[in-house]
Specification:
Elements lengths: L10 E7 L7 H11 L4 E7 L5 H11 L1 E6 L13 E2 L1 H6 L4 E5 L2 E5 L2 H11 L8 E5 L3 H13 L3 E5 L3 H14 L5 E2 L8 E6 L14 H4 L2 E6 L8 H8 L3 E3 L2 H16 L5 H23 L1
Parallel strand pairs: 1-2, 1-3, 4-6, 7-8, 7-10, 8-9, 10-11, 11-12
Antiparallel strand pairs: 3-5, 5-6
Helix pairs in contact: 1-10, 4-5, 4-9, 9-10
Bound molecules: 2'-monophosphoadenosine-5'-diphosphate.
The site of 2'-monophosphoadenosine-5'-diphosphate has 14 residues, from helix 5.
Length: 290
């Protein structure tokens, strides 16, 4: 990639959150925008919760066309938006916003992003039996995307049973025909297992017993750092096909890019930028350890 084009006509995108300093998105999106010849940049904005009411008028004033939202604002931004996509409506959470002639429109691209990462690896998910571990925000986003395309059965298990039950209730309300339960029976087997918990991110634990890992054809984790969690290592030992969370991170961005620009995103370049960013933080961590 050559020098970044920037002048009086440069279009502006960004990400809001607190903190945002660790985000890979500014590098990924600025490279992507410029690589397809768009005169545009994507910047990080660290925004405190109390400032949210002023945010959209300020962005409109500054001509910021669209932005991503990360923790802790994905839910709190909603009252300020003019329209929501169906998924964002069900989730009560938004990670992508675009300014249109009808005002500010909110989307959630995490769930679809995960499904696109499966598709990219030829991992089947439509009309399949799926075991999902975890019932937090990421689980909810993926569950809604799965319910939208249709599954044979979705089984959600979680450390805190009530959270799995309340997620199932929300899903059942939005998708009355969805086959869903929140506990396992011994005879279960699955096409696909998805870990959405943080177990394995900063420890070498697996979020579920080996017994269940062996009973699924495909094993996936939304964690991308480390690239191979204990869950995925075990799955490989059992001869299963695996996938980590890098694709979800990539494709949530790909979808956002397409919403903002109306053009296909340069996926390969975006993947490379993410891998470079990961590599850079890894070297930084290694240096700190010395
Ligand atoms: P995210 O937005 O990444 O999904 P979250 O909404 O905080 O984050 O959800 C975290 C998920 O990981 C939850 O399902 C949580 O289980 P609880 O509902 O019981 O809290 C799960 N989780 C986090 N740490 C865990 C641990 N040590 N063991 C088991 N599950 C854990």
């Amino acid at each position: 990639l050559g020098a970044i084009q920037i002048n009086g006509l440069t279009r502006k995108f960004g990400i809001i959150g607190s903190p945002v300093k660790h985000s890979f998105s500014p590098a990924m999106h600025t490279n992507a925008l410029q690589s397809i010849g768009l005169n545009a940049v994507y910047l990080p904005f660290s925004i405190q919760k109390e400032k949210l009411p002023d945010l959209l008028p300020s962005f409109e004033l500054l001509g910021i066309e669209g932005f991503n939202i990360t923790v802790p604002h994905k839910e709190n931004i909603i009252p300020y938006l003019d329209q929501l996509s169906p998924a964002a409506q069900i989730l009560g959470s938004v990670n992508t916003v675009i300014h249109t002639s009808n005002g500010w429109m909110g989307y959630s691209t995490d769930g679809n992003g995960f499904l696109r990462s499966l598709k990219h690896e030829d991992i089947p998910y439509q009309q399949k039996t799926i075991l999902m571990i975890g019932a937090g925000g990421a689980a909810k986003a993926i569950a809604v995307a799965l319910a939208q395309v249709g599954v044979k059965e979705l089984i959600i298990v979680n450390r805190t049973q009530e959270k799995a039950d309340s997620l199932a209730t929300i899903l059942k309300k939005a998708f009355p025909d969805l086959a869903i339960r929140t506990s396992l029976v011994d005879t279960d087997s699955f096409d696909l297992l998805i870990n959405t918990t943080s177990v394995g991110m900063e420890d070498d634990r697996s979020p579920i017993e080996d017994y269940w890992i062996q009973k699924s054809d495909y094993i996936t984790d939304i964690i991308y750092n480390p690239p191979k969690t204990t869950l995925l290592k075990k799955a490989e030992q059992f001869g299963k096909k695996t996938l980590n969370g890098l694709g979800m991170l990539l494709y949530q961005g790909v979808e956002a890019f397409e919403i903002w620009t109306g053009q296909p995103a340069p996926e390969a370049l975006m993947r490379k930028t993410l891998l470079d960013s990961l590599h850079n933080i890894k070297s930084m961590e290694d240096n700190q350890d010395k």
